[in-house]
Every structure is written in C-alpha cells, then in structure tokens.
C-alpha cells in the first residue's frame, strides 16, 4: 500500500496479471496495479462435472458422518467423564451383562438421585429372587431413558421390570424446562437414528432449538464437537481413559461406595426461608440446599407433565404387550422436606400412567424414612448410610409388586 | 441477516433462482430488489437514506460530466460533502460531541444523540467517493441508468463490509452482463464454502477465546494470557474478515460479477509496508488512490511522505470507528510505516528473502498483533490494561488449547503452500475429483469445528 511505481516483488508479479490502471492526477502519471481475480474459465470443469463433484462431496460428507458417528465408532472413544461417555459406558456395560444374568433382571433408571447401590440390592437376591442393574446416568431424564432402553432392550423382553425413580408422582414445574434444553442430547446422541430426527426435533420448543436439534441429530459431528476437540488436545490421555473405562469401569461402578458425608444437623426455617447448616458444611452442600431444596416456587405451566407424558409415553409404547413391568418409585425428596403448601400441583401424570396394563406405582411413601439430614450427603443425594438403607427397601418393594421370581 | 445464518442462505438461494429464471433484461432489477430487501431486512428505516445517497451521487456525477471544467470542482465538493455529511453524522457525531463536551467540562453524553449506524455506510460511502472522484478525473464515465448506479451502491454481497469495489470494475461486469460459465460458478461456490469455513470453523473458535479474555480484562491475567488472547484476536479478525470477503466474492461470481481479492496471506508479510499490501487490499488501495497520492504521496520529500503516511493511516484508523482507540491504532501503523520508510530511505521496497524472512514475518505479526489491542479493547483504559499485562511480569495462563494451535498450524501451512503455489486458484480449476475432495474436506471441517450455536457477528459488520 501507499507505494507508487512498479514493485519488483512477488505481489507485483501476481498483480501484473491483473489490469493496470494509468492514473492521471495533478499532472503526474502513476502506474498502479489493481489486484483482481482472473476471470478466465478453468478448462477442466464443465457444468455436469461440477454438479457431480458437488453431489459427490456432499455424499462423501454424509458417508463420513455416518461411518464415524453413526456406526458407534466414535461413541466408543468419547471422554468417559462426559455425559456422552457415561451414557455409552453404562449402555455397553449393561448390554454385556445381559447374557449372564438370566430372566429375573430388574433394571433401574434415574438420575443421580436414584442413589441405591445394585451391589447391596443383589446381596438380597437369594431372598428376593431378582438381580438389580442400574442403567441410569447422572443428569438423565425420561427422554434419556427412552433412548437407553430402546437399544438396551430392543425386543422389550429382556427385563422382568423397569424401575424409574422420579422426584414426585405429582407434576411440579421447577423452572427448568426440558423442552428448551439441548444439553441431554449430548448424552444419547450416539443412539439417535435417522428415523428419530423429525420427531426428536419437534419435541423442542421454538424454531431455533428445533433447528439445532435437527441439525445435531442429522450431522452428529456438530454435537460431538467439544468432545472431539478434547480428543485432539490430548489423544494419549483419551486413549488411556477409554481403555480404563472399558476395563475397570463396570467393576468400579458396581463396587462403588457412596460418600459418607452427611448433613446431620441441617435445619431450615421455611418461614424465614433460611437454612442453618451443620458445622463444617462445604460449598457443595450449601449450594445444593440453597439451589435445589430451597429453590423458589416456579409458575406451574404443565411443562413437566407434558414432558413426562411424551417421553414415558414412548417408553410405554415400546413395552406395549411386553411381559416387562414398568414401576415408578418416588425417591426420597431431600434431607428436609419442603412445605406441602408451597405449590399447587395441577396434575399427576405418573398416577395416570398407573392405569396402563403393565405399569405399577410403588407405595408412594416407602422411601420417606430416608428423608433425614443424616442420610443425605448434600441437598439432594443420599449418602453411604442412606444408600445402604435404600437398597433393601427398594428390593422389598419391587418384590412386593412383581411377586416371586420365576 | 449475517452471511453465516440459515436465513441468509435461504435468501441467497431464492435470489439466485429468481435472478436466473428472469429474462436477462430484468435481472438487474431482480438483483436490486434483492439487495434492497437484504438492506431493509436489517432496518427498513434506512432505505430512504441509501436511496438518497445513491440519488445525490448519481445526479452529481451526471452534472459533473456535463458541466464545464471550471464548475466541475464545486460539484465534486458538493457530492463529497453530501456523502461525508451523512457518514459524519451517523458515525462521528457522538464522538465529536463527546469530545467537545469533555473540553467544555461536561459529561461526554451531554450533546449525544441516540444514533444507529446504518448498515455498511462506511463501505458504500467510500465506493461513492471513488466513483465521484473518478468521474471528476475523467477516468470513469457517469452512469446514465439510475438502476445501474443504485445496484453498484447496494449490491448485497459487498454492501455490508466490502470489498470496496471501484465503479469501473463493477460496471465492466454489469454492461454487458455475461452469465458465469461453469468454471466461474465452481469458483464462486468454492469461495462461498471456504469463506463460511473460515468464519465459523476458525474465526468463531478464536473469537470465543478472545471474548472470554475481554469479558473481564481487569481481573488480570498476565503476559501469557494477554498474548494468547491477542494472538487469538489476530487470527479471529483475519479469518472473520477474509472469510466474509471470500463469501462476498464467491456470491458475486455466482451472479456474474468479478471482485478484486482483498487479502493475500497478510500474516506472511515481512514488514508492515508489505502487510498493508496484503491486508484489506480494497481499502488500502482506496486510501492510496484517493488520499495518499492526492496529498502528494512520496514525491514531495521525506518529511511530507511521513506526514502523508501518518495522515492517511490516522484517517484510515478513524474510518474504522469513531473512537480514540482507532485513531491510536491508525497512528501506530502510520508510525511503523514511517519508520520502515525511514530505514529504507529512497530505496525501492523489495521483498525480504533468505534467512531474514521468517524472523521478520514473526516480528511483523507481533507488531500487528500488539497494535490490535487498540482495535479490540473497549476503550483506551482497557487498551492500557491489556498492554500492561502483555509486558508485565506475571506469566498467567495460556488461553489457547492445543487444538486451537492445530487449527492455526494447519491454516499457516495452507497459507505457505498457497503463497508458493497459488494452491486455491489451482484447486478451483482442478479436475472434478480434486474439487470434490476439497469441498468434502471443508464440509468436514465445518462439522467438526464450526461454531453453530453461538451467534458471533462478523467483526467488520460494525463498521
């Protein structure tokens, strides 16, 4: 820039191919090269070949996406510590176990609040006749369980019962709107099929989210992006983590011991909306109590009811005519109970489900005994002692509903 | 309607279909309607402004051409004043009034208006000015058909952020208009996808790093943090603007127009002088032809050359935005250009070769990156904070992940290959299988790196 005259360099040589303007101004003549793109037509491409080339590129791209992201190839190397990795490891672990466990398997599904330990439940197999497996993943919801079960139990006959842990049989909107959250999609993205795309996208609210869901379920690379970037950043660590996940994770999760911390001493003054924490309470304990247990009351718009009806409805459809029983369990609600009169719950979709032939509800209050601060490690999760109490209660309740094992 | 949205691609597809199904005589009207729709989609209230400016320039040029020599200059001044008045009001009024208020000891907002900057006004004003000056100089015939002129100003691929197209380049393609042949269409499509990849897969990834740093500069970070953020910004702004330009040139080709290139691997420059020959070429050549040379260029002695360089770059900086930061940025470039000129003396500029090349490339990149602090920071205080961190004693945390560096390394390798072999040009003219492979690679890149859920505007759209 800002140069007059001919420039003896590469740029000048490139520019020399372009037109040269002879500019007259103030009686001075300057030679200025204008940088222009050559307009000469390339000889090797004709219209038909270009169309073919474009179509071939798009076809190869779709094939690439299908080969890497639809075949399970990439799902097998996702970060084990991510939601997608946890979902995949859980799915593969349970699939692998199916052949070893016979016909009296009860699979449980729920988020991290469904904190019983299958190992403790299976210590009672001699008494109950049932083997318990847990296919739930932290942060999952009914949508997640649908995609998990559809691939885990494609014939709808592999389990004696499917047990879902829910916060409440009644529907309470908490402010969280699952139909606006694309996050859970990351966990089950590997299990979305092309036939799901339209229905899945339509389950979100608003055109922008529906478009994102559509794009992500058609081209899964968009959803796996951050995982892929992490893989690129440290491929050796990923290889190690994946190997450890494959070899050790099934046993590690089965032998898992819950955290012994407790909230013993916690009290909440609901009139003043103030919590008194036990000495030594840590940040997680305080945050979970404040953010979840002491959450503000949300407007009741039927969001949870609609979501449950849609996604549990698809699960019921999958199990229609199947001998598998579907059981809903109300989980322990917290270390301290919220006042009953805070929210007027307008519907109870879970109770509606009970009218279906193979759906049953556990006794609503059978886990109420766990709703004590000393059984909780934070505002929402049971601790080691709570989990130890949880397992036998669950086994007995499921045995009561299913009757003796066959 | 930014170029990297589905909405825009639907608009583009409809515009292309309508353009090509229309009889040839009607096509320019279709293109004009599409361009005004594009402009109105952003803010319909400014359509009269665009029409008014086009009408003023159109009439001024015609009168100038018909007027006797003595009366041409006043007409030119009138036309330029009208353009600069609009630009001045919309872009610089609050800046000037704020400074006036400060001088009078009042709050900067004392005389401020709530002014919305019309889309692309900085760019189409420069196009208008170059047209008027060219007509005045007798290098461009005044355009007779108002539709043609309105299209020149509003043509949507380059309306928002250039490239700044000279009238002779545009009208050479408009009259007589020739349909792009298959090869040109292939080039257009290739550039469109390439630009999208540059924007979404490269620029927006680096933008996230930059934004995370600038969100809270005052919290401190240290030298590594500030340098990594500024390197990321240098990469962001290049990929962002050159991506936009590639898309604009590509789209123009699809409509049968051939625009000049705007970037030529600027980060392979071995001096700031060379950098400005490779960066935003349509602006730098505009500044050269309509500001630097008319002021005397380098032909009136050493000190006047420095003065001209400084004035040109200060105005170039101010053109980017109405703030002292941009003035500072332009001034620093003026100083660097002057220093290089001082070192070079009267010798003609020559490209650096041999062992000195790579160290000088690194130095140029570092200098350009440092000056960009003023370009990116919200205000002068923040700029000083960032520079303080860049040269402070605290190390801080390197913000770029290894995969960011891989992206940078790949693009650097592509630039070197491009520099040596003009690979992109060859690829666009390569056999169909090579063309298809390149398209495939770009689509994969878009899928794996494209930022799709965060709406990151083009950097130059704000100007």
Written account of the structure:
The complex is a heterodimer of chains A (406) and B (463). Chain A has 406 residues and is α/β, with parallel strands linked by helices. Chain A contains 15 helices and 9 strands. Chain A has helices at 10-16, 47-70, 83-98, 118-122, 125-128, 142-152, 185-188, 197-202, 207-218, 221-233, 235-254, 283-293, 303-318, 349-353, 384-402; strands at 20-25, 28-33, 105-109, 131-134, 161-166, 267-269, 274-276, 325-330, 359-361. Chain A has a 5-stranded parallel sheet with strand order 4-3-5-8-9. In chain A, α14 (349-353) links the parallel β8 (325-330) and β9. Chain A is globular. Chain B is an all-alpha fold. In chain B, 71% of the residues lie in helices and 0% in strands. Chain B contains 19 helices and no strands. In chain B, α3 packs across α6 and α9 (182-214) runs antiparallel to α10. Chain B is globular, with a radius of gyration of 23 Å. Chain B starts with 5 loop residues before the first helix and ends in a 14-residue tail after the last helix. The model of chain B has no long low-confidence stretch (mean pLDDT 90). The chains are: A alpha/beta (406), B mainly alpha (463). The interface between A and B is large, with 58 and 69 residues.
The major sheet of chain B is characterized as: none
The count of strands of chain B amounts to: 0
Note the overall shape of chain A.
globular
The arrangement of helices and strands of chain B along the chain is: HHHHHHHHHHHHHHHHHHH
| Uncertain parts of chain B | none
Question: Radius of gyration of chain A from the CA trace?
Answer: 29 Å
Average pLDDT of chain B? 90
Low-confidence stretches of chain A: 1-44
Number of helices of chain A: 15
Q: Give me the Rg of chain B, rounded.
A: 23 Å
Which characteristics define this entry?
heterodimer; A: 406 residues; alpha/beta; 5-stranded parallel sheet; two-stranded antiparallel ribbon; 43% helix; disordered N terminus; B: 463 residues; mainly alpha; 19 helices; globular
């Amino acid at each position: 820039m800002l140069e007059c005259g001919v420039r003896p360099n590469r740029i000048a040589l490139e520019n020399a191919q372009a037109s040269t303007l002879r500019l007259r101004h103030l009686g001075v003549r300057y030679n200025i090269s204008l940088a222009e793109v050559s307009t000469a037509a390339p000889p090797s491409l004709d219209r038909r070949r270009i169309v073919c080339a474009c179509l071939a590129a798009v076809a190869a791209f779709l094939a690439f996406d299908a080969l890497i992201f639809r075949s399970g190839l990439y799902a097998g190397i996702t970060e084990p510590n991510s939601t997608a990795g946890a979902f995949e490891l859980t799915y593969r672990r349970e699939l692998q176990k199916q052949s070893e466990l016979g016909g009296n398997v009860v699979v449980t599904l729920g988020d991290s609040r469904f904190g019983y330990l299958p190992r403790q439940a299976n210590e009672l197999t001699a008494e109950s006749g049932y083997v318990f497996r847990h296919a739930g993943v932290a942060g999952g919801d009914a949508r997640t369980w649908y995609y998990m079960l559809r691939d885990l139990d494609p014939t709808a006959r592999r389990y004696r019962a499917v047990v879902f842990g829910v916060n409440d049989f009644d529907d309470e909107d908490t402010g969280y709107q699952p139909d606006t959250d694309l996050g859970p999609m990351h966990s089950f993205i590997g299990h979305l099929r092309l036939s799901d795309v339209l229905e899945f996208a339509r389950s979100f609210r608003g055109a922008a989210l529906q478009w994102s869901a559509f794009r992500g379920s058609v081209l899964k690379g968009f959803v796996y992006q951050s995982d892929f970037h992490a893989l690129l950043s440290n491929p050796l660590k990923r290889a190690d983590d994946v190997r450890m996940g494959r070899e050790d994770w099934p046993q590690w999760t089965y032998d898992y011991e819950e955290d012994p911390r407790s909230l013993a001493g916690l009290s909440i003054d609901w009139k003043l909306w103030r919590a008194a924490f036990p000495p030594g309470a840590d940040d997680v304990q305080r945050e979970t109590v404040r953010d979840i247990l002491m959450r503000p009351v949300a407007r009741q718009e039927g969001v949870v009811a609609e979501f449950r009806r849609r996604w549990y409805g698809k699960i019921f459809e999958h199990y229609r005519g199947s001998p598998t029983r579907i059981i809903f369990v109300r989980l322990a609600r917290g270390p301290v109970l919220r006042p009953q009169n805070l929210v007027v719950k307008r519907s109870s979709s879970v109770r509606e489900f009970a009218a279906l032939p193979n759906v049953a509800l556990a006794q609503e209050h059978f886990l109420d005994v766990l709703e004590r601060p000393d059984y909780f490690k934070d505002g929402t999760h049971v601790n080691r002692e709570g989990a130890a109490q949880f397992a036998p209660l669950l086994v007995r309740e499921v045995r009561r509903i299913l009757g003796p094992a066959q | 309607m930014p170029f990297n949205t589905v909405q825009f691609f639907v608009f583009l597809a409809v515009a292309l279909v309508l353009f090509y199904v229309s009889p040839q005589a009607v096509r320019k009207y279709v293109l004009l309607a599409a361009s005004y729709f594009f402009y109105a989609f952003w803010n319909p209230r400014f359509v009269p402004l665009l029409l008014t400016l086009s009408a003023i320039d159109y009439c001024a040029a015609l009168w100038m051409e018909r007027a006797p020599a003595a009366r041409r200059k006043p007409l030119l001044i009138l036309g330029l004043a009208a353009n600069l008045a609009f630009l001045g009001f919309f872009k610089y009024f609050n800046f000037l009034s704020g400074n006036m208020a400060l001088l009078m000891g009042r709050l900067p907002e004392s005389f401020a208006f709530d002014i919305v900057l019309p889309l692309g006004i900085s760019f189409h004003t420069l196009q208008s000015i170059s047209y008027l000056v060219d007509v005045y100089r007798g290098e461009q015939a005044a355009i007779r058909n108002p539709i043609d002129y309105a299209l020149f100003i509003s043509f949507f691929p380059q309306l928002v952020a250039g490239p700044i197209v000279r009238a002779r380049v545009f009208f050479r393609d408009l009259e007589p208009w020739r349909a792009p042949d298959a090869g040109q269409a292939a080039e257009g499509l290739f550039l469109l996808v390439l630009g999208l990849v540059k924007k979404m897969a490269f620029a927006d990834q680096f933008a996230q790093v930059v934004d995370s740093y600038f969100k809270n500069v005052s919290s401190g970070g240290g030298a590594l943090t500030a340098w990594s953020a500024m390197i990321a910004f240098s990469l962001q702004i290049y990929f962002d603007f050159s991506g936009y330009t590639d898309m604009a040139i590509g789209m123009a080709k699809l409509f049968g127009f051939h625009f000049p290139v705007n970037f030529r691997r600027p980060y392979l420059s071995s001096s700031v002088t060379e950098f400005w020959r490779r960066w935003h070429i349509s602006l730098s050549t505009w500044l050269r032809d309509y500001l630097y040379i008319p002021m005397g260029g380098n032909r009136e002695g050493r000190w006047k050359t420095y003065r001209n360089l400084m004035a040109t770059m200060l105005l170039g900086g101010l053109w980017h935005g109405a703030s002292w930061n941009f003035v500072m940025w332009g001034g620093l470039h003026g100083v660097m250009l002057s220093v290089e000129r001082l070192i070079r003396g009267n010798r003609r500029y020559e490209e650096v070769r041999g062992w000195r090349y790579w160290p000088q490339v690194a130095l140029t990149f570092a200098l350009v990156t440092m000056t960009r602090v003023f370009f990116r920071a919200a205000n002068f205080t923040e700029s000083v904070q960032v520079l303080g961190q860049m040269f402070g004693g605290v190390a801080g945390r390197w913000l770029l992940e290894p995969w960011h560096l891989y992206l940078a390394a790949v693009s650097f390798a592509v630039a070197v290959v491009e520099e040596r072999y003009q690979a992109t040009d060859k690829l666009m003219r390569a056999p169909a299988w090579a063309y298809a492979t390149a398209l495939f690679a770009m689509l994969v890149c878009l899928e794996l790196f494209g930022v799709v859920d965060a709406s990151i505007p083009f950097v130059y759209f704000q100007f």
